[in-house]
Amino acid sequence: MIRPLCASVDIYPDESLLSIIARTADANVVPNTATLLRQALGAVGQTASTPLTQTAKVQEIAALFNADPDQISARMLPSADGAQVTSIDWFGTPLERRFLEVRKRRYAPAALAAAPYGRSSWQIRPLLYCPETFERLQDTCGSCGSQLRHVYR
């Protein structure tokens, strides 16, 4: 049985699962997201897309994050084409998996200033602009220029 973390986060309607994981790690002073993934998924060596596709682990992830399983399930991106997994079900619309950005963390500064969470739409690789603020999506640190990514150590 998974013991829930001490601190949970409010989940925004358009928030990505990767953002929920990162914000939950931060709220619980967990140094990296891989630690949380190992607790929820029970394996080492997870990839950036693992929490998006492990629909069988919804209950475990929800229990760990003390979240509604429906909230977690709604952010999962199951295969849209069976075992091939060349397309995912992007909230009811098939999307080729190659169009999903899970390694780089992209953001729109004005949108983050309005509400500090990662939008699901920012993960669509061909989308260059934030649909909320219409500003170009960034993937590097504004201070040092380093590539931003979802932290998996």
Q: Can you walk through the features of this model?
A:
It is a single chain. The radius of gyration is 15 Å and the shape is globular. The protein is built from six helices and two strands, in the order αααααββα. Helix content is 28%, strand content 5%. The longest helix has 11 residues, at 17-27. With 153 residues, it is mainly α. A two-stranded antiparallel sheet has the order 1-2. α2 crosses α4 (58-65). It has helices spanning 17-27, 33-41, 50-53, 58-65, 69-73, 109-114, and strands at residues 87-90, 93-96.
* Proportion of strand residues: 5-15%
**Number of extended strands:** 2
Helix content: 25-40%
The biggest beta sheet reads: 2 strands, antiparallel
Which regions have little confidence, pLDDT < 50, spanning 5+ residues?
none
Tally of DSSP helical segments: 6
Shape: globular
Radius of gyration: 15 Å
The chain-level mean pLDDT equals 82
Q: How are the strands ordered across the major sheet?
A: 1-2
Quick rundown:
With 153 residues, the chain is mainly alpha-helical. Helix content is 28%, strand content 5%.
